[in-house]
């Protein structure tokens, strides 16, 4: 397969209303399934959802403690969100990348549960191919993520799918070039980058970072951003895909809910790498300084 149709879903999660119980989640997942169905109508094979796609942006505030009700929003891999997305993937025979607030149950009775920002990769039969836990966790005003998430402990895996090898990096990871480099060296052809970026003055920074990473590694990178006006932030969408030469495959989308399509010609990877031999001419022996504390 040299041609691969992919889609990014721009979705605005519904707010958690007082007394709403799980209804906000049910409604958001239904909307996500509808948008995925629209992507499938375009013969898409891989669908990526944005960071924490099923929840409002709760990390805008620092929690009051481990008993803060926001930790109750976290789910295990057999929770309602991943269970629903597994069903949708199987129904359509597609791969879905679904980023959630993950609760990882303690392995022994003396330990606390652990919490991560995690992207699950779901296969065409509804099986869990694997997951990526966000490694680089920011602590910035309105992105108080370190107060909720532990740094990922699974490295930078590459996932084998029926449509090729893919990687995932979550939001802030984009600005750390080591992430994409490791995935490219391990065979990823496409890297999906679910994000939660607000305030559209940052658009150009994201475009430049993704463009440089795609070109330096000779891979496609599909940045998929959330949308919607929340209490403190306006998430602007603007999802886009870069080619292996760092040029746009699909230009930034608007700020509304919808489906962003990107049809990739995977043969471009070899063509670009034969001209721009960045991976071939690496000098690992000279990079000792990268791993010093």
Automatic annotation (TrEMBL):
Keywords: Hydrolase. Gene3D superfamilies: Carbon-nitrogen hydrolase. Pfam families: CN_hydrolase (PF00795). Residues 4-266 form the CN hydrolase domain. One of its GO terms (molecular function) is N-carbamoylputrescine amidase activity. Coiled coil: none annotated. Its EC number is 3.5.1.53. Signal peptide: none annotated. This is N-carbamoylputrescine amidase. It comes from hydrothermal vent metagenome. The lineage of its organism: unclassified sequences, metagenomes, ecological metagenomes.
């Amino acid at each position: 397969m040299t041609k691969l149709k992919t889609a990014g879903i721009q979705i605005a999660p519904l707010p958690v209303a007082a007394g709403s119980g799980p209804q906000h989640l049910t409604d958001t997942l239904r909307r996500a399934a509808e948008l995925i169905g629209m992507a499938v109508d375009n013969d898409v094979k891989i669908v990526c959802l944005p960071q924490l796609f099923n929840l409002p942006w709760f990390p805008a505030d620092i929690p009051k403690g481990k008993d803060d009700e926001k930790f109750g929003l976290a789910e295990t891999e057999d929770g309602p969100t991943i269970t629903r997305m597994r069903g949708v993937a199987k129904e359509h025979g597609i791969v879905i990348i679904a980023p959630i607030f993950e609760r990882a149950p303690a392995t022994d009775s003396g330990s606390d549960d652990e919490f991560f920002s995690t992207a699950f990769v779901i296969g065409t039969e509804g099986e869990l191919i694997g997951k990526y836990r966000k490694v680089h966790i920011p602590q910035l005003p309105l992105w108080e993520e370190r107060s909720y998430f532990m740094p990922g402990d699974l490295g930078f895996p590459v996932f084998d799918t029926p449509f090729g090898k893919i990687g995932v990096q979550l939001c802030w990871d984009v600005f750390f070039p080591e992430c994409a480099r490791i995935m490219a060296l391990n065979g990823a052809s496409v890297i999906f980058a679910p994000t939660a970026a607000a305030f559209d003055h940052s658009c150009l920074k994201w475009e430049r970072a993704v463009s440089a990473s795609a070109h330096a590694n000779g891979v496609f990178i599909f940045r998929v951003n959330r949308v919607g006006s929340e209490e403190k932030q306006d998430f602007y969408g603007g999802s886009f895909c870069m080619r292996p030469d760092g040029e746009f495959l699909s230009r930034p989308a608007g700020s509304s809910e919808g489906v962003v399509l990107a049809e990739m010609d995977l043969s471009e990877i070899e063509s670009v790498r034969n001209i721009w031999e960045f991976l071939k001419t690496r000098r690992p022996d000279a990079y000792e300084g990268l791993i010093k504390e």
